[in-house]
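The passage that follows is intended for readers who have already worked through the single-chain material. We present the inputs for a multi-component assembly, then the predicted structure in tokenized form, and finally a short commentary. You are encouraged to pause after the input and sketch how you expect the pieces to fit together before reading on.
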Amino acid sequence: MNRLLSEIRHNPMLWLLAFVPVVFAASMLSPDAHTLLFLLSVLAIVPLATLLSHATESVAAKTGDAAGGLLNATLGNLTELVIALAALRAGEYMLVKASIAGAIVTNTLFMLGASFLLGGLKHHVQEYNRVSARFQAGLLFLATVALLIPSAVGTADSATATAFTAKLSLGLAVLLIVAYGLGLLFSLGTHRELFASAEHGEAGEAPWPIGLALATLAGVTVLVALVSEIFVESVQKAAETFGMTAAFVGFIVVALVGGAAEMASAFSGARKNRLDLSVGIALGSASQIALFVAPVLVLLSYVIGPTPMDLQLWPGAVVMVLIATLTATLVTNSGRSTWFVGALALMVYIIFAMTLYMLPPRVQ
Amino acid sequence: MNRLLSEIRHNPMLWLLAFVPVVFAASMLSPDAHTLLFLLSVLAIVPLATLLSHATESVAAKTGDAAGGLLNATLGNLTELVIALAALRAGEYMLVKASIAGAIVTNTLFMLGASFLLGGLKHHVQEYNRVSARFQAGLLFLATVALLIPSAVGTADSATATAFTAKLSLGLAVLLIVAYGLGLLFSLGTHRELFASAEHGEAGEAPWPIGLALATLAGVTVLVALVSEIFVESVQKAAETFGMTAAFVGFIVVALVGGAAEMASAFSGARKNRLDLSVGIALGSASQIALFVAPVLVLLSYVIGPTPMDLQLWPGAVVMVLIATLTATLVTNSGRSTWFVGALALMVYIIFAMTLYMLPPRVQ
Amino acid sequence: MNRLLSEIRHNPMLWLLAFVPVVFAASMLSPDAHTLLFLLSVLAIVPLATLLSHATESVAAKTGDAAGGLLNATLGNLTELVIALAALRAGEYMLVKASIAGAIVTNTLFMLGASFLLGGLKHHVQEYNRVSARFQAGLLFLATVALLIPSAVGTADSATATAFTAKLSLGLAVLLIVAYGLGLLFSLGTHRELFASAEHGEAGEAPWPIGLALATLAGVTVLVALVSEIFVESVQKAAETFGMTAAFVGFIVVALVGGAAEMASAFSGARKNRLDLSVGIALGSASQIALFVAPVLVLLSYVIGPTPMDLQLWPGAVVMVLIATLTATLVTNSGRSTWFVGALALMVYIIFAMTLYMLPPRVQ
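Having made your guess, compare it with the prediction:
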């Protein structure tokens, strides 16, 4: 417990934890102050996500590489998963899908681009393990194909087409989870030596004791779930107040909030010239969401959602995911990076954000 | 003749030749047993295709590299060509186009992917000549552009648009054949040394005497033509019985049957760590179909078809060919392969097969 | 002045300058002879463009690398800019957009492809600096995304959508100019050493005295502007006479005329085995048009055009720009070239030209 307190004292971001009780109090006192609740829940989720990622890493460090990698991989996007589950239970499928696509795009373009830019401003040319980047880009490419094909093939809007999309989405969800499992087997099992340089101890901090880590994991997950509920309820209304489109909120705001903790690690890795860490977090997180979180949400929608959710995105989102994957592939192809490469990826992200921000409501 | 018999005795796949007389007998006795005829014709085509590819290789080995390469290239996809011709004469243009697109997709994703997977399960990391893979991928890219452009540009469905598509297809067909010829000139002529490692004697078997090879070539081609006629007549009806969509049959079933012999060679090459052979067969076969078989069918449709056939595919097929070409380009970019790379390519193929299998009839 | 005359005497292309007074005379004597005026204006623009590029290089050589590079970059596509301005003032936005897209496509496919082909016919395998090619391809990729996104996202044709496209185009125009500026900072500033081999003295000719260069620059720009006016007025009518579609004229004819001078330099560089020069001119020119000329035209349309112009292209043009960028990326990926690589790029260009030439008027 002392350990946890000292961690909080030394990490300014964790001071934001003070907002956790505040958001609960506010949501009970004035449940209709959507804009306030939105801001408070964002401020509360960010430090909780940071704690969650620390706890996950500590547990992973204890259980050995293979099991730890699996744990890290499955728990790494817990925040995104919990936010999406809250939206799923509320039947807000548009928000779920936008946040999935947004997380993929934000991780591959914003997190990767800003890492390259921040690293490149300090170091002239940086090198990293391109085998690992290619592997993640390959997984992302597969997921993009799975997201693209239902839209490309099924066009008619009849009941038959809906049934087809639902059945196909179920099949694709299972296939993506299998691909994700095979990817873990490959990168942590049969060919782990190819991924060597990407493995030098995340963030270099001493891990927490296992008991503390597990307790934090359990407690913080519950807190994130509760705050996410408030976030999902308030975000749409708050967006209207700020004049943001729903697409912009789902794609950009939710993705940035959900990924805040990972971004902190990725950027700090890039500044320390440990670009393998940054590339691993950015692309690994994106492929996790595409191949694990998204299909799991489709499967869970049969259990907890009002109706089954399919994998079909709106055409604009498919194009953005496709461009993000292509950009990641082109950008990581050489295994070297400079500030300009990062700036290019960020520019693509800004084009997307600008488009979504200006999008008139009816065109979405 | 003894040579041919001993070959048949030692190759279990050739025992299937017994089905050739059976399918002819069945088609005369009960011409309406479509499912039976479909199964029998598949069982008969596979060994005939194997014989055909052996005979072609033997002739090619005799005539020297340049002429032999040309012969091998033009005769290598004889089975696909003969099946497509049978469909062309019957005016089944949808089936012809589906089988062309399906053969491209099946060769680049299934044949290449399964070769990488089977080879990778035995060998940790395999290397191959990436110049050759890039060359084939470049040809495929050109063909994909030619298939994509008529759909991307001409949208209106008027009579003018049809005339435009027909005229454009004729021009594109001639251009693709010219590109194919230039490719042969490059890879067998001016820059043959770049393709070196891909040339170490196909399958390592002693070639047949030239007389036997030529006689086999002639006789088996006639047999394949006759069996293909039965296959094309029965396949659509049989598909309905099995609950398969026409798109699935054309894309997947016909392509797997037509490529059976080449797949056997490609997989055996991969197991023997001769991946240049596998990549050459898979991508070479795909680019042959795209740049030679498809345009020749367009030209022949003016002679033997009921109306001229154009090169325009349905949008879903264009997307699949495009994704297959992109996958081949990405996957062969490094010149190294592992089991996981093969698994990724196969997964993309499974996504396509799953989508086509589930496709409701009216959405095609 | 003697210098200029001696230059004209030794360069046969400059003899075409005789057509400059002829075209002015003809336009006054018979302003309705569109076909004649079109031919004469083409013959007059080509030598003027050659003079303009010589003068620009001479000024650039005097002002030192950084400022000179900037000058060269901003003035290099002066002909294209002046032609587009004439069309912009006439409110011919379709022609402006077609000529932008056409210049990108023509530079990346025709100029690059023909350079590789002509160089490859003389030299077996040529090598060049792939860092520079990748940098230009990255800029082109960003511009392609900017051209693609408005079409991909905004579909409804309402007044809202038009306002959205106009606002978005303005934002994208500013972003592209910023990206272009960052690209200059990167390639001429912070990381100029990466672009080393691309810098060995353009064309190897002794530069003109600065006074002559500046005077030529000013005088020739005025002449190009005047001739362009005649060209833009006559080109559409002349096209009908020759049976060419408006799309073909804008995409192919205008682009070839506008880029004639640069093509001469690129091809001569390739024959002299200085492929860095050719790749730099071809891709550099394409990215300049995409990231500088096009956005500047959008901004200028608010000042000199009848209504604001947006960045949205017709879908077929977007596909062509996308394919051209992809081709440039794939083709320059290895840093080596042979005649066949050039032939492939040219074939893609021929597919586009053929499609646009055959396009029935109503489908455009």
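Commentary: The longest strand of chain C covers residues 126-127. The radius of gyration of chain C is 20 Å. How closely did your sketch match?
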